Amino acid sequence: MINPSTTGKGGEMLRLNTLESVWIQGKLRMWGRWSYIGSGSGGHMFNNLLASKKVSKTAIQQVLKHLKSSGLDHGELMSYFLDMLSGKEKSNLVFCTDEEGLLMDAVIGEILVRTGHQRLFKLVVDRYKDRMSKKAMARELNTRHPEWCLRTCESRIDVWLQMAEAMLYLPMCDVFDKKADRFRLQSCTGIA
């Protein structure tokens, strides 16, 4: 099967190619997990635990003791563990250290917040930190704008998220020392 290098119509300005889009969405998911876990829920300790070389029973017991003393009730703790077991919290989490999370946070803050794009920032937070589906985001937008049909709201959410991802792609590449054009098709001239 041949995967397309781009999606959408030719000549569009704010569209990443497929691999660029997958890369930035992966980074944003890692940032979302990192900021969700570090947002005062007590789960930040799990990030440190998962990033360590080995996980011992004693380390897990210390984390659980700290979580209980921090005021996390049994229901919240149980829901967190069920999320971990179902795979929502563990995928790629070990690959996002605090340093990487802070770098991504700085880029997102600089590009979206400081330049006055707070609504795009809210969309990124809703999608990647709070893990709202695009459909739920569209329903929320539809309640604020009942004159728009749900399909219009879905399209707008989609376009706005793509625009935010495109705005963040180059700065994220710069901060992680990645070549921004590494996913672009290279010319075959001169190979033969």
Sheet bearing the most strands, described? Answer: none
Strand content: under 5%
The number of helical elements comes to 8
Shape: globular
Termini separation comes to 25 Å
- Annotation, overall tally of beta strands: 0
Low-confidence stretches: 88-94
Rg over CA atoms, rounded to whole Å, is 20 Å
Quick structural overview:
This protein has 192 residues and is mainly alpha-helical. Helices cover 61% and strands 0% of the residues.
Secondary structure topology:
Layout (H helix, E strand, L loop, with lengths): L17 H20 L6 H8 L5 H13 L4 H12 L12 H16 L4 H12 L4 H11 L5 H26 L17
Helix pairs in contact: 1-5, 1-6, 1-8, 5-6, 5-8, 6-8, 7-8
Description:
With 192 residues, this protein is mainly α. It has 2 domains: 30-89, no CATH class; 101-176, no CATH class. It has 8 helices and no strands. It has helices at residues 18-37, 44-51, 57-69, 74-85, 98-113, 118-129, 134-144, 150-175. The longest helix is centred in the C-terminal third of the chain and has 26 residues, at 150-175. Residues 88-94 have low confidence and may be disordered.
Provide tags for this entry.
192 residues; mainly alpha; 2 domains; 8 helices; globular
